[in-house]
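User: Let's play a game. I give you a shape written as tokens, and you guess the letters that built it. Ready? Here's round one.
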């Protein structure tokens, strides 16, 4: 199979085109290259091309689309190292994590290449003998997406793969901070044989402009967004005018709960994996920790000791566990939350280390109270506030005391408690004795103001299909 080289992958970064967006390495500040910016009319023209291309794409047999997606999947695997290095350069996450994301992103392409062949309809018993009732599934049409910077490859493939498998064309605006990975992934899709107008990557003069086009253009029938709840509300309001279908994966405030009967060592390892992956910049990472008072000191001691072993630095360097945060604004916000928590009575349980640039040392905060600001805010950084609790009832009340409902985690060995707590937590996803829950085979999504819709699993492709009911009479 043809494999593009590192120099091929980075060709589009070499020279500046006007207008263009500069892309910098958050670890070093180094200019990496430029990504092309389209004007309003050019983006609308891209939508028109996507609409025309979708007609032919939808007519392809599902097996033919599946074969093309499988070629894309294998090209992603073949170019894992190059893609990971590019991702680390523009996003900052450690190289090992970036390689893991490439595999994770590719897994959705593989999964939906198969699911696209299984978009079954139904035969329904009719109320009378002279009728037959059948349902079929059809692609919604042109699908659009707006994706974030924290998972610049996986958030695209998780949306593009089911859309393409369903027979939709797909147009995506990646985050301005990490567009290069998006262009690289799309280039591999083209090499796999997916038509360029069927899968398009666009950047506009500003994010709001592109969002307005995606939500208002009559040829776009679907919008999928991953990002903040604030922006999600705006996009849903704009989409309401055309009653456009939307999927929203929005903010989170995940509780990580350790009960008195938990395996503390396992809980510590799960906490490290959940909290500090991607420097705490994930929507499903543990945001606040609730630990039973009887094991609070033990957990804090072991957790803090493990956190102090994490290495902060450039993601390309050997042994680095925590890379930079994405921007100076993000760093300022994280440090401000920590300082306000300290002013309110929290204490630092780990060594305080100051870093230059966009690096933030992992921090564990103890003696945190549930009503502190840091508990209600999505930190999006390597900071772990730990709160004590005394009863299951108190814990459930505190854990559900948020507008968000994306992910949650808890550790317990009591099977009755496991079922009761899992059912009581108001979250779309619950990790039980497990700190990492994302997988292509399970439905990913939240409740409350964490969004609507599901990605991955068999449900993921349904987000891009309409059910049509056929009634045959006079038989």
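Assistant: Ready! My guess for every position:
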């Amino acid at each position: 199979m043809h494999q593009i080289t590192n120099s091929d992958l980075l060709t589009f970064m070499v020279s500046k085109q006007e207008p263009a967006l500069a892309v910098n390495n958050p670890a070093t500040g180094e200019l990496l290259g430029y990504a092309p910016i389209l004007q309003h009319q050019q983006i609308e023209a891209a939508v028109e091309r996507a609409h025309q291309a979708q007609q032919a794409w939808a007519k392809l047999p599902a097996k033919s689309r599946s074969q093309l997606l499988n070629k894309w999947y294998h090209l992603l695997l073949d170019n894992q190292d190059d893609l990971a290095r590019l991702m680390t350069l523009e996003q900052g996450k450690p190289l090992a994590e970036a390689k893991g994301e490439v595999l994770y992103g590719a897994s959705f392409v593989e999964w939906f290449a198969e699911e696209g062949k299984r978009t079954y309809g139904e035969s329904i018993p009719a109320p009378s003998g002279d009728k037959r009732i059948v349902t079929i599934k059809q692609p919604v049409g042109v699908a659009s997406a707006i994706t974030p910077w924290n998972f610049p490859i996986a958030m695209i493939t998780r949306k593009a793969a089911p859309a393409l498998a369903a027979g939709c064309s797909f147009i995506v605006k990646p985050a301005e901070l990490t567009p290069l990975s998006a262009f690289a992934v799309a280039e591999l899709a083209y090499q796999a044989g997916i038509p360029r107008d069927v899968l398009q990557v666009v950047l506009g003069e500003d994010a709001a402009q592109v969002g307005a086009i995606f939500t208002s253009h009559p040829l776009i029938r679907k919008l999928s967004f991953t990002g903040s709840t604030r922006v999600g509300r705006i996009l849903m309001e704009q989409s309401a005018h055309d009653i456009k279908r939307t999927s929203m994966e929005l903010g989170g405030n995940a509780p990580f709960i350790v009960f008195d009967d938990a395996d503390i060592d396992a809980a510590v390892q799960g906490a490290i994996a959940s909290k500090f992956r991607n420097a705490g910049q994930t929507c499903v990472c543990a945001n606040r920790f609730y630990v039973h008072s009887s094991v609070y000191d033990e957990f804090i001691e072991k957790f803090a000791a493990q956190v102090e072993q994490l290495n902060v630095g450039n993601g390309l360097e050997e042994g680095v566990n925590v890379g930079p945060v994405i921007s100076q604004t993000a760093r300022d916000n994280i440090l401000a939350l920590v300082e306000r928590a300290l002013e309110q009575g929290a204490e630092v349980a780990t060594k305080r280390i100051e870093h230059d640039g966009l690096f933030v040392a992992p921090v564990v905060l103890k003696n945190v109270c549930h009503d502190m600001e840091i508990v209600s805010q999505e930190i999006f950084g390597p900071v772990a506030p730990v709160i004590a609790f005394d009863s299951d009832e108190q814990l459930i009340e505190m854990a559900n005391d948020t507008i968000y409902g994306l992910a949650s985690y808890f550790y317990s060995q009591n099977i009755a408690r496991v079922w009761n707590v899992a059912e009581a937590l108001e979250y779309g996803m619950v990790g039980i004795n497990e700190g990492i829950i994302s997988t292509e085979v399970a439905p990913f999504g939240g409740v409350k103001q964490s969004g609507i819709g599901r990605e991955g699993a068999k449900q993921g492709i349904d987000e891009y299909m309409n059910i049509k009911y056929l009634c045959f009479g006079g038989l």
